[in-house]
Amino acid sequence: MWLSMSDVFELGVPGPSGNENDTYVSNDIIYKVNNLLNSGSILRLLTRVSWHNNLFYDTAYTLRAFTGFDGRTIMPVLQQRLIKDAVPATAIEIETYMAAIGFIKQNDDGCYANDEYVVWDLVPRNVLRDKDGDIFIIDAEIKVKE
Q1: Residue 79 CB-half CA count within 13 A
Q2: Between these two residues, 72 and 32, which has the higher pLDDT value?
Q3: What are the start-end ranges of the H helices in the chain?
Q4: Residue 58 in 3-state DSSP?
Q5: CA-based Rg of the chain, rounded to a whole angstrom?
């Protein structure tokens, strides 16, 4: 589905934006309009989304639409369940969670690996803790080990 740029603003209330996503919040959903700055291509982004969904299914992404400027850009619009009443997780909470799902902390801050994947950028802005103490990875950089 194609979503015109003017309709993007109707997705919801603008939320926090980062290097590669502008976000919009509506009820229980957060929409992320991805500019492909970190991914470089739609294929690489969708591959990374697939890895995220396999590893962190409780914060799985769905491809909602594409948007962009005619003849110049195409940006995927992803949607993800909004984690309500959450706060950034601490480094210790992140490390404990990742260990519980089989990842080992690496030398770099926020970097973890198992036999198949390397996951990084797991810092408090990308990992949330809800009021029940559950941990949610909402954004991560992921690659398959070589």
Answers
A1: 14
A2: 32
A3: 5-8, 42-55, 91-100
A4: helix
A5: 16
Is residue 119 within 8 Å of 142, Cβ to Cβ?
A: yes
- Residue 70 clears pLDDT 80, i.e. is over it: no
Query: C-alpha angle with apex 113: 137 to 108, nearest 5 degrees?
Result: 85
Q: Which residues contact 41 (CB under 8 A, 6 or more apart)?
A: none
Collapsing DSSP to helix, strand or coil, 61 comes out as strand
How many DSSP H helices and E strands does the chain contain?
A: 3, 12
Q: What is the pLDDT of residues 32-43, one digit of tens each?
A: 999 988 888 899
Amino acid letter, 103? F
Rounded to an integer, what distance in angstroms lies between the CA atom of residue 31 and that of residue 77? 7
Which pLDDT does position 69 carry in this prediction?
A: 84
In angstroms, rounded to a whole number, what is the distance separating the alpha carbons of residues 112 and 103? 6
CA–CA distances in Å: residue 136 to residues 37, 71, 73, 142: 24, 37, 31, 15
Mean pLDDT confidence for 73-102: 96
Question: Are 86 and 78 within 8 A, CB to CB?
Answer: no
Measured CA to CA in angstroms, residue 120 lies from 8, 31, 67, 71, 144 at distances of: 29, 22, 28, 34, 12
Q: For residue 39, give the amino acid letter.
A: S
